[in-house]
Structure formats: structure tokens, C-alpha cells
């Protein structure tokens, strides 16, 4: 069965087919899938896990509960053996979030479909697809749209998944961050220079759990230099939108007052996540594209 592990090798027509299918689900189309799935989340998650669960329920799938804290992982069982166990008991797809980058390489021999719900600082393909869906919904296209990704680029799987996919689909992508967080990207630290010419301002959460940020910045200083402040929002283009994958550090990446402002699509992104994940589950379980 097809896996969804990274955005790096997903062709444009596959991406657009998934977005089209998500749109059909948003418009009320129903689908019914047979089988059981398990969400294996080894890192904390609210949105991704819950929206996968919602998507699974809407598709009529059996969702087997799995809590890492009560599993044999605590007895030292490997991820591979855990996934093989799911396969043996008849599970058709596993959705995995794991702190290890490319954890999925060790699962190459498994027959069960694997959907990546985030691998360390690696990739987060369903977040990228829901972001692409949200941008397409807003502007009717992705080609030619200027997206500025702001924040912890080097450690963000959201930035990496989106950077590749957006460029491949013809968007202009700019990166703004402190030099220390540039990773392999060509970045600037001057958000003010770009804020007035960008269509999408995509803010990222500072990944405190993946590095020590406090030595580099106080929250206040980060907000002043790299945050979306009210003053910056006023300089945005008339129809430009604000995105953030959440969870949000209010007052750090983005001013509290902007989280639900008229330009913000942050909660719309979450809503869209359910439709996109329905499309991805269908693709993984039925081979439908
Ligand atoms: C993101 C993640 O976990 O990578 N959140 C999400 O899935 N919506 C972003 C983040 O944690 O910063």
C-alpha cells in the first residue's frame, strides 16, 4: 500500500489530486473505508493526532487506541517490532510521529501503510498538504504566490516539508530567521524588508524541545526581531494571510491579538487538516490518488 513519508518525492499531480479530493470532502462528499488503523504518537500532539482521529472516524475506520505510556515500548520493544505487531493483528495503516528523523527507514520491510505524522526535525507531509490546501483555497493557485516562512527553519519539519513542495509548485519562497537557525536555506534576518511584499506570512513555532533557545534570545527580543507584531501586520499586503501550524507561543512568534485576526487562517488550517487527512488515508488504504 502507498506510504506518505515525505514531501520530497511527491509529484505535483499527486499533490494536486490529494488537494482536490480534500476539497470534495470539505464540500460534503462521503467515503467509507474498511479496516483498522492505529495512531502511534511518540511525541506530543494535539492537532495532528486529533485531526487524524476525526478523519478516521469520518471514513468509518476502526481506530485502535494506542498509548505509548502503556505499551511494550516501555519494555524496550523496537518501533519495527511494534509496527510488525500491528500488521500481524490486521491493522491496515499506521500513522506515526517520532522524535527520530527518518525513523521510517527501519520500517521498509513492513506491509502496513505508513503515514508520517512528523519525524523529528525531518518532515511533516500532512501538515504541508493542509498548508498547500489552505493557500490554494485562498488564492486559487499556488504558482506565483510569495510565501515567507519565518522562524526556526533549521529545526522545523513544517518549514522543510513546505519549502520543497511550495517551490516545486511554483511559489516564491523566502526564509526569515536568526542566522543560527538557517540550516541549509538561504535566509535573511530582515522580516521588515519582506513583510509588505508577501502573500502568505507563515510563522513557525520556536522548537524549544529540539535545542536550547534561551541562550540565543529572550522571548521579548525574539518577538521584536522575528515576531509578527501588530505594526508588521499593518504593513502586510491588502489580501495577505497569516498562517502558523500551531501550537502557538502567543506573544513570541505572533502577537496575541493577531492569532484570530481577520487575516489569520490558523484555525482554518486546523479545519482543513481533517479533509486533507481523509484524502491521505484514502490514498494510503485504497491506493486512490
Ligand atoms: C507542528 C509539529 O508538530 O511539527 N505542529 C503540528 O503538527 N500542527 C509544529 C510544531 O510543533 O511547531
TrEMBL record:
<feature type="binding site">
    <location>
        <position position="97"/>
    </location>
    <ligand>
        <name>carbamoyl phosphate</name>
    </ligand>
</feature>
<feature type="binding site">
    <location>
        <position position="246"/>
    </location>
    <ligand>
        <name>carbamoyl phosphate</name>
    </ligand>
</feature>
<dbReference type="GO" id="GO:0044205">
    <property type="term" value="P:'de novo' UMP biosynthetic process"/>
</dbReference>
<feature type="binding site">
    <location>
        <position position="47"/>
    </location>
    <ligand>
        <name>carbamoyl phosphate</name>
    </ligand>
</feature>
<comment type="similarity">
    <text>Belongs to the aspartate/ornithine carbamoyltransferase superfamily. ATCase family.</text>
</comment>
<dbReference type="GO" id="GO:0016597">
    <property type="term" value="F:amino acid binding"/>
</dbReference>
<comment type="subunit">
    <text>Heterododecamer (2C3:3R2) of six catalytic PyrB chains organized as two trimers (C3), and six regulatory PyrI chains organized as three dimers (R2).</text>
</comment>
<comment type="function">
    <text>Catalyzes the condensation of carbamoyl phosphate and aspartate to form carbamoyl aspartate and inorganic phosphate, the committed step in the de novo pyrimidine nucleotide biosynthesis pathway.</text>
</comment>
<keyword id="KW-0808">Transferase</keyword>
<dbReference type="GO" id="GO:0006207">
    <property type="term" value="P:'de novo' pyrimidine nucleobase biosynthetic process"/>
</dbReference>
<dbReference type="InterPro" id="IPR006132">
    <property type="entry name" value="Asp/Orn_carbamoyltranf_P-bd"/>
</dbReference>
<comment type="pathway">
    <text>Pyrimidine metabolism; UMP biosynthesis via de novo pathway; (S)-dihydroorotate from bicarbonate: step 2/3.</text>
</comment>
<feature type="binding site">
    <location>
        <position position="247"/>
    </location>
    <ligand>
        <name>carbamoyl phosphate</name>
    </ligand>
</feature>
<dbReference type="InterPro" id="IPR036901">
    <property type="entry name" value="Asp/Orn_carbamoylTrfase_sf"/>
</dbReference>
<keyword id="KW-0665">Pyrimidine biosynthesis</keyword>
<dbReference type="InterPro" id="IPR006130">
    <property type="entry name" value="Asp/Orn_carbamoylTrfase"/>
</dbReference>
<feature type="domain" description="Aspartate/ornithine carbamoyltransferase carbamoyl-P binding">
    <location>
        <begin position="3"/>
        <end position="137"/>
    </location>
</feature>
<feature type="binding site">
    <location>
        <position position="157"/>
    </location>
    <ligand>
        <name>L-aspartate</name>
    </ligand>
</feature>
<dbReference type="InterPro" id="IPR002082">
    <property type="entry name" value="Asp_carbamoyltransf"/>
</dbReference>
<dbReference type="GO" id="GO:0004070">
    <property type="term" value="F:aspartate carbamoyltransferase activity"/>
</dbReference>
<dbReference type="GO" id="GO:0006520">
    <property type="term" value="P:amino acid metabolic process"/>
</dbReference>
<dbReference type="Pfam" id="PF02729">
    <property type="entry name" value="OTCace_N"/>
</dbReference>
<feature type="domain" description="Aspartate/ornithine carbamoyltransferase Asp/Orn-binding">
    <location>
        <begin position="143"/>
        <end position="283"/>
    </location>
</feature>
<feature type="binding site">
    <location>
        <position position="127"/>
    </location>
    <ligand>
        <name>carbamoyl phosphate</name>
    </ligand>
</feature>
<feature type="binding site">
    <location>
        <position position="75"/>
    </location>
    <ligand>
        <name>L-aspartate</name>
    </ligand>
</feature>
<dbReference type="InterPro" id="IPR006131">
    <property type="entry name" value="Asp_carbamoyltransf_Asp/Orn-bd"/>
</dbReference>
<dbReference type="Pfam" id="PF00185">
    <property type="entry name" value="OTCace"/>
</dbReference>
<feature type="binding site">
    <location>
        <position position="124"/>
    </location>
    <ligand>
        <name>carbamoyl phosphate</name>
    </ligand>
</feature>
<protein>
    <recommendedName>
        <fullName>Aspartate carbamoyltransferase</fullName>
        <ecNumber>2.1.3.2</ecNumber>
    </recommendedName>
</protein>
<feature type="binding site">
    <location>
        <position position="205"/>
    </location>
    <ligand>
        <name>L-aspartate</name>
    </ligand>
</feature>
<feature type="binding site">
    <location>
        <position position="48"/>
    </location>
    <ligand>
        <name>carbamoyl phosphate</name>
    </ligand>
</feature>
<dbReference type="GO" id="GO:0005829">
    <property type="term" value="C:cytosol"/>
</dbReference>
